[in-house]
Every structure is written in C-alpha cells, then in structure tokens.
Amino acid sequence: MSDLPNCPECGSEFTYDDGIQYVCPECGHEWSKDASAASEDEALIRDANGNPLADGDTVTVIKDLKIKGSSSVVKVGTKVKNIRLIDGDHDIDCKIDGIGPMKLKSEFVKKA
Q1: Helix spans in 1-112 (H)
Q2: CATH of segment(s) 58-111
Q3: For residue 3, what are the CA distances in angstroms to 14, 75, 87?
Q4: Residues contacting 98, CB < 8 A, separation 6+
Q5: In this structure, which CATH number among 2.20.25.10, 3.30.70.1050, 1.10.150.120, 2.170.190.11 belongs to the domain 1-38?
C-alpha cells in the first residue's frame, strides 16, 4: 500500500512522487506536497469557538435556528447528541429530539 494521497481532481490512487510535487498519471493533475498537508487541515470541521468536531460528539446550539418550511425553531441551548460530520454547506447531520433529522452548520454550535 502506498502512503501517497489520492488525486484531488479524479480520486485516482495511482499518484506518484515527483520531487517537490505529486502527479496523477490518469488525469495529469499536479499538486505540491504542501497543498496536501494544507487540505487535510481545511477538511477539519470546527465549531463556533474553533474547537475541532468529530463524529459522535455532543454539541449545543448557540443561536435560535428557524427551520425552513416550518414554524418550529431550534432554541438556544438545545443539546444535540451523536452528530455525524458530512461534506457540504451544512456539515453536521443529526437528529434533534422533538424535531427529527436535520442538518446544521458548524458555525451555529459549540462543543458540549
């Protein structure tokens, strides 16, 4: 198994090291080794206070959140248990008691 990262463009696992950069033989994409380390840091999802979040964490809502298409509101201080981190604008997938499954933005929660 290779310790080299997959290609960020096409996802190919056949990348190779070419001195100061990585190269993908399938799509021809080239990227620096420094960019690979930076992208790992960017992928880290943080709460409103800058604390890193992980799957299974418990978070607290820091602002009243209106639920689109409903008259319900997620109130300040609502605890959300067992979150799952996902890609996208709303990067937390969870189930809130009394409301049901929904997606939240990490900027509106803090780690409990």
Answers
A1: 33-42
A2: 2.30.30.40
A3: 11, 45, 23
A4: none
A5: 2.20.25.10
Burial level of 100, CB count in 10 A (0-12/13-18/19+)? exposed
- Residues 28, 102: Cα–Cα separation, whole Å: 39
List the pLDDT tens digit at each of the 112 positions of the chain.
468 888 888 888 889 888 888 999 999 888 888 765 555 555 689 999 999 999 999 999 999 999 999 999 999 999 999 999 999 899 999 999 999 999 999 999 999 8
Hey, what amino acid is at 73?
Answer: V
pTM above 0.85, yes or no: no
Name which of 61, 62, 57 is nearest 44 in CA terms.
Answer: 57
- Which tokens hold the place of 41? 């840091």
CA 48/CA 104 separation, integer angstroms? 12
